[in-house]
Amino acid sequence: MFINRVQRVNSMLTHLVSVLIGMTVAAMAILIMLSVIVRNLMGFSFQWIVDANRLIFIWMCFLGVVYASDKELLIRFDLLDKRFPPTVHKFFTLLRYLASLALFGIMVKAGIEVSQFAKAQVFSTMPISTRWLYIAVATAGALLVFQTVVKILLLLLVPQNR
Q: Which of 35, 46, 70, 38 has the alpha carbon at shortest distance from 149?
């Protein structure tokens, strides 16, 4: 069935995102530890570690939003949802998903547009384009769009979600 395949792809993407989050946390810890050790033992520091950690941190944050969204852990106003009957609750859930879809679409568009301006700029301490900072926004937005479409399909097509 189509919906099962889409759910499987979404689960695989969420697992991949969780692995990438773990890798970013580990990379940041290693870089910070390296910086401290080199500074204390050798008396100097690598300036590129600050920029590398900034880049990794931004990717970690946006990947974290993707993971939290999949697990329904993002902040939302649900006080009124629980006071309404199930059909009204489904309607509010659909409205929330549609509003989120619009926001995530804006993320993709803005991330791509800003990355075009940043492609010529490089970090002052490493030969990497600052474009990668903004590609994180577009990537997270695209993943969030996919997740939200899956949630809408589940809400509308799966009997227990009706």
A: 70
Q: pLDDT (tens digit, 9 = 90+) per residue, 105-158?
A: 999 999 999 999 998 899 999 999 999 999 999 999 999 999 999 999 999 998
112-122 per-residue burial string, b: 16 or more CB within 10 A, e: under 16: eebbeeeeeee
Is pLDDT at 37 greater than 50 in this prediction? Answer: yes
Q: Which residue has the tokens 């100097």?
A: 44
Q: What is the DSSP letter of 158?
A: S
pTM, whole model, 2 decimals?
0.90
Helices (H), 77-130: 86-118
CB contact set of 14 (below 8 Å; sequence gap of 6+): 66, 67, 70, 71, 147
**Tokens 């926001």, located at residue:** 103
CA angle 14, 150, 13 (to 5 degrees): 20
Angle, CA 136 vertex, CA 146 and CA 124 arms, to 5°: 170
